[in-house]
Amino acid sequence: MTRLVCDGRELELAPGISVLTALIEAGVKVPNSCRAGACQACLVQVTDGVVPEGAQRGLKDALRAQGYILACQAVPRADLAISLAGAKALELSATLRAVERLGVDMLRVRLLPAEPFPHRAGQFLTLIRQDGLARSYSIASLPAEGAEIELHVRIIPGGRMSGWLASPAGESAAVRVRGPAGECFYTRGRPERSLVLVGVGSGLAPLWGILRDALAAGHHGPIQLWHAARSPERLYFCDELRGIAALHRNFSYRPCALEPGLEPALERGVQIGPIDELLAAAGNSFADSSLFLCGDAEIVQRLKRKVFLLGASLQDIHADAFVGAP
Amino acid sequence: MTTIYQALGGEAAVDQAVDIFYRKMLLDARVADYFEDVDMDRQRAKQKAFLTMVMGGPNHYTGKDMRSAHAQLVQRGLNDGHVDVVIEHLGATLKELGASDEQVAAVAALANSVRSDVLGR
Fold first, then answer.
1. Which residues of B are less than 8 Å from A314 in CB distance?
2. Which end of chain A is more exposed for a tag (fewer CB within 10 A), N or C?
3. Residues 38-67 of B with CB under 8 A from A
4. What is the pTM of this model?
5. End-to-end CA distance of chain A
6. Model pLDDT for residues A21-69, shown as the tens digit of each residue
7. How many Å is the maximal CA-CA distance in chain A?
């Protein structure tokens, strides 16, 4: 058994139990969501003891240096002391400004942080409700557009956060945000490079920002944006993306759907089939491309493996795997 | 005396090699199963360290590290045949990068020197 001290309170940890599990079992309220080390909602700060191995994966250097860990990934092998105050201090107040429907099961959420929130298009933030419910979402807006931040939130049946955002209770609500986090953003320096952006469902959100960031930076190499949804009805931003394609000759928009759907008119220009097969069949040489893969974790991992085997360099694949929580 | 690591181009060469090597492993049915459900970036980092070591580059692996790292795989049936597959793909990868037969043999020898540790013998 190891000892975990959380803000002065002593807990005993059985071997193999994560800090998050121990905290939840002890009734300690700590924001958490995916419990898989992806969303960074369960950030806590180590105040004494050795940082457990693997507990800082994905955290930016500044957070690592200050002893922050992901509670869901931290399985201590020796006594550890943590505090919740640090992560709390990283939260910013924000107000929900607008929530509108985008297509069948998607919400466009705009919020305004009370203080500047420096970030790069494509990163993600953790949205925390006043009662502590936390979910992480990718940022779809461009910093250059202004202080308001746009998120795309899929409405999940029984989803606590998406259900609240879609309800009147979410209107103009005060919330908190923490972040930004993530490595899925455009970097300048190779404007001639081929970019392949693949978004599954709400995975379009970070790519919407990355695409416009790249074009604003003068990227002139070929850019392909693939958006895959279950059916053509669930695609969104189609007109916006076609508009960008009309203005930029190096950009091509490839909407895809797994199944044909109910309205034949919506299928116009949409490729039908599994995204990994459609992508592989397109004849891309991935060897000199930079790839951005965003959306459902299982599909993204499968895509990552597939494009790697087709010649993409692992170092040039930026994957943002979404792990949901109800 | 230049190491093969230095002769082939140091870290930049290993970065190229590791993607080629990892692809060969994933496409080989004899060993691909061991890479199911593995985080690809972490796996790449481990393979980069391994390739660096067998090419004579700077590394910090001990025999004990190799032993403990593969213990669970040994329990799942990892055997000499699998190690042979690794050495085969290592050689093919190095040839693609322009290594000579002597260099390939030297690297294979280094890889063989950790065989017993890997297989927990």
1. 19, 22, 40-41, 44
2. N
3. 40-41, 44
4. 0.91
5. 32
6. 999 999 999 999 999 999 999 999 999 999 999 999 999 999 999 999 9
7. 63
